[in-house]
Amino acid sequence: MTAVVGAVGVVGGAVVSAIPAALGLRRARGAAQEEGAATRDTVETLGARLEAKVGAVRDELRSDVAELREDVMDVRAWQAGHDAEHMLMARRRPEQ
Q1: For 45, phi and psi rounded to 5 degrees?
Q2: SS3 per residue for 12-60
Q3: pLDDT tens digit string along 41-70?
Q4: Which of 4, 50, 87, 92 has its CA 20 to 30 A from that of 76?
Q5: Does the pTM exceed 0.70?
């Protein structure tokens, strides 16, 4: 009987000493979940900001390319007119 009481005492002591550790794990899990949620929110916010920045750079690049195309079209039109002037001047020269 003394052995049973001793065994129950040892098991009871182990359970009592394990309770704070179990509660600590539960608290740690809760803190980790909260920290994980904060990290996910931060990553989502950074992702949204990055996507907005990439979109702005893409739009600016498209605008710059459109302006460059207009400039190239103006130069080509000027070249065509200039070439036409030279062709007309060559026709009007007296034959030598």
Answers
A1: -65, -45
A2: HHHHHHHHHHHHHHHHHHHHHHHHHHHHHHHHHHHHHHHHHHHHHHHHH
A3: 888 999 999 999 999 999 999 999 999 999
A4: 92
A5: no
